[in-house]
Amino acid sequence: MSTDLYRWADQLQLGTDIDNPVMPFLRQDRIPHIWCPGCGIGTTVNCFARALTESGLDLDKVAIVSGIGCTGRVAGYMNLDSFHTTHGRAIPFATGLKLANPELKVVVYSGDGDLFAIGGNHFIHAARRNMDIMVVCVNNFTYGMTGGQVAPTTPLGPTQTTMPYGNFEPSFNLPFLADACGAVYVARWTVYHVKQLAKAMQEGLKKKGFVFIEALSPCPTLYSRRNRLGDGVDQLKYYKEKSVQKNGADTKELALGFQEEIIVGKFVDRERPTWLESMNEHFSRVLGTRYQPWGVTHAED
Amino acid sequence: MVSWKGGFGVSAAEEIKRGKGTIFLRPEICKGCSFCIDFCPTHCLEFSRDFNKKGYHYPVLPRPEDCTGCDLCGLYCPDFAIFGVRYKDLEKRRQALLAAGFVDVQQG
Amino acid sequence: MHADPKGVLTGVHFLDGDHAACEGALAAGCRFVAGYPITPSTEVVERFAARIPTVGGVFIQMEDEIASSIAIQGAAWAGKKVMTVTSGPGLSLMMEHVGLAAFTETPCVFVDVQRGGPSTGLPTLPGQADMMQVKWGSHGDYEPIALSPNSPQECFDLMVKAFNLAEIYRVPVFFMMDEVVGHMTERVQIPPAEEIEVVERRWSSRPPGQYRPYETGEDLVPDMVKAGDGYRIHITGLTHDERGYPAMNPTAHGALVRRIHDKIRRHADALVDIREDGVEGAEVVVVSFGITSRVAAAAVEAARQQGLKVGHMRLIITWPFPARRIAEVARQVKGIVVPELNMGQMVLEVERAAAGRVPVHSVPHAGGTVHEPEVILEKILEAAR
Prior knowledge:
The structure holds 3 protein chains of 3 kinds. By secondary structure, chain A is an alpha/beta fold. Chain A contains 11 helices and 10 strands. Chain B is of the alpha+beta class. Chain C folds into 2 domains: 5-195, Thiamin diphosphate (ThDP)-binding fold, Pyr/PP domains (Rossmann fold, 3-Layer(aba) Sandwich), CATH 3.40.50; 275-384, 3-Layer(aba) Sandwich (Rossmann fold). In chain C, strands 2, 3, 4, 5, 6, 7, 8 and 14 form an 8-stranded mixed sheet that branches. Chain C has a 5-stranded mixed sheet with strand order 11-13-12-15-16, with helices on both faces. At the A-B interface, helix 1, helix 2, helix 8 and helix 10 of A face strand 1, helix 1, helix 2 and helix 3 of B. Strand 2 of chain A pairs parallel with strand 10 of chain C, so a sheet runs across the interface.
């Protein structure tokens, strides 16, 4: 067995951590992480790292806020100002962070249960207000951290611990919800679509206003295993097989069924004044020179 | 700095055919999920027969000549255990580091 | 450090407690408020909403109290002095985030304009029944600071103190008003900015890479930084180590929980603020706080006119409870009387501190109005027998 190749490659290991594009974004003293084999959250982090690199943003000004859950752990692994807050409340925390220092680029990175069950109210209001934050929702159709309970995104049919005979509750169509609440950028991809997901995140980072990106991801240990869907890679194969890209599709048509067709793509990309822009414009008009506009309205302005 | 194993392969050939790139792997943090193996565009990765301390089979590069260094494996890897790199980028990096005063150290 | 004149409405005003509290916050340097309307506290944020655009800062009415209580913490980590304002039902909703602020050591002020409770209760009438809640309402162990003003003037003055304490100790500080103090209109004198002593946040002087968010020195309070300055901090509500990283083991947990208690307990003496009147040589002492103290003062006066030596101890800081001072006094008097607009809350602390040395007489009241002085007087007379 020849080892020439190894030696040659080894000779180039001058700190090859630098060569791995995701490494600078990770708190390396906390790797390996807690996610299961075949869980897609780490994959989304790779996409996010790539998006951050491509966006050219000053990483000192990027803050990541997570809630509670498996995806909520992302904040802890990323080498950014990171905040691991309470269950469902990442968005209002992010709101305070952003409004107090508008120069920050604030990203909320959390799971479907955290964002849409307990956090649902905060999501709809932040979208309505067009808060200048990006929300990445890793949707694995379950509450993973607590052992696989039904979530507002669990499709009809599969079994979860709190729906032991199969889920009979209808689920949210997340892009539709985000669209209806006024999000200015709405996209859905899966962790099979790594390049597109990274691209969407990059666009989202550059977009002013409330950005929502749904990333479907496997939960091999709970959602998949309980419903005999195989490993993480089997779920990725399902995503590959059943995904249909329909950019600009009507968000009403994007509901997900159990192991059925998945419509992916960018569905909403529009302009609306952000909350801060509205505040500044309004107060300037009403109060004239007595008012000093607050902060810059976008990290890149 | 973390130590990575370079270009894992099982080639028995004396003359090693080089592809456009190679992969670096941390076998001990791999969880054998198979994303990289299944989604490598040139199918140049396979599970090793060996396994790490946790019992997971990690990928190896039996056909290094097929690796383009596209880093799709790295983009997929949920455990940050593997990444691909093009030889020309690696050489650029090496030159830059040497110029900055780093010493070329052979890893064990 | 002196107050920023932009936020100081110097002059003599005729304000109610809610309005004065808002002015106190502005004078203290508060520049971010997230709130939700709830009687009888709403005026605090209404005034803030009207004032902040020309002072410079942000007010946002959030969708609920839960959002308000954490939005302020986001703003605190962006470097601002922050406050939220509520009453009983809202405070109950905020409880999880009280614990978050305590565990992450986020400086913030929670104003509770107490009303009749429990539940929806009496929105427009006073109570003082949230006193124990601020200490024990969030799950787990934590040591908050709580202040009780009894006039609009104090709503201004003590609010500045509240913000200062939040910055010094990096804890949630509770400003325990009540509906009467909040809605009574009195003379409020706001001094010039140079005369208002304001404590700024203790920023770390260490560069990124050398700074550890929860490393402390003698005073057990860590230096703070803010997002956006390159520190790449990690802040979590999970039990964490000095780096701020989750450290879910009993050792780290014990160390952290004990330190957040010790940082208050060790400074217990500095955190005593009692306005004492005639306690020296008293036979009976009345311990009161907030609006009840005004009624108690009348009762104390009446008792003195009957020839009794009665002292009055008005607690400004109720948490941490001044157990040592109460214990001292307990050794000197025949009885302690504790009137409060609740079914007996701070009296439990008085009893605890007195440790059986002296009879402690509770004067409970379900709330909805203030005590009648005669009721307190009767108890004073009973205590003197």
